[in-house]
Amino acid sequence: MNRPETPDAHSDAAELSTGGSGELRKQPVNPRAAVAELHVGNRRFAAGTPDRPHQDVGRRIALAEGQQPFAVILGCSDSRVAVELVFDRGLGDLFVVRTAGHSVGPEVLGSVEYAVTALGAPLVVVLGHDSCGAVQAARSAEATGVPVSGHLRAVVEAVLPSVRRAEAAGVADLNQIVDHHVERTVAVLLDRSAAVAAAVAAGTCAVVGMSYQLTTGAVRTVTEVGLAASSAPPAGGARAEPPAPA
Question: Is residue 168 classed exposed, middle or buried when 0-12, 13-18 and 19+ CB atoms within 10 A define those classes?
């Protein structure tokens, strides 16, 4: 993995290469522009009219010397949530880290920190989805008291605090529990990674929680931290709460 050149901080996007459609693509270099680009791509995907940018031979060759992704996506490993497809992006656009239930461990934190500090990614997204099996497994384990065997136990234990927090708030719907888990994962990232928290405080990065709907293909924002302090015009959004005790 190679460290890219520093992007121009005074522009919303840097010209990098041509997409598969032949159009000149611009890569977002601040949090606001990165969020906007993800939503635009997702709308194309959900509508069934993807552009499939940055998937041509020229793009592949151009990236051989280095990468400069405009967003880090920490998503669930669910096979139905293919990140580059969901956001209609291509090679070199997204730095993707996937674990069941977007659970956070040392390797995940290190990967996210690398993308933010070494590659200069201006956005971190925690991407959950409805009908999440990891959240359901944690919910079942909590309800039955039956321990989960093998390494799956680590995933369940990572999700359990979110389940308990949601239940304490009187939330029973699975997909609303997923939202709680997305919010908590955002808070955990900022709590456990001094590097990411510092980038957010400096206004060079934001952390946004999103949720993907399996049937419609649409992504919505659940929570955000740092967008108001970024270099683009402000917009509304909820801030993540501190993580609940495990």
Answer: exposed
Its pTM stands at 0.84
**Structural element, H or E, at residue 207:** strand 206-212
How would you write the pLDDT of the chain (246 residues) with one tens digit per residue? 333 333 333 345 444 333 444 343 567 889 999 999 999 999 999 999 999 999 999 999 999 999 999 999 999 999 999 999 999 999 999 999 999 999 999 999 999 999 999 999 999 999 999 999 999 999 999 999 998 999 999 999 999 999 999 999 999 999 999 999 999 999 999 999 999 999 999 999 999 999 999 999 999 999 999 998 665 433 333 333 334 433
Query: How open is the CA angle 16-17-21, to the nearest 5 degrees?
Result: 140
Question: Which pair of structure tokens corresponds to residue 187?
Answer: 């808070």
CA distances from 191 to 42, 114, 173, 240, 245 (A): 29, 17, 27, 11, 12
> What token pair was written down for 75?
């998503």
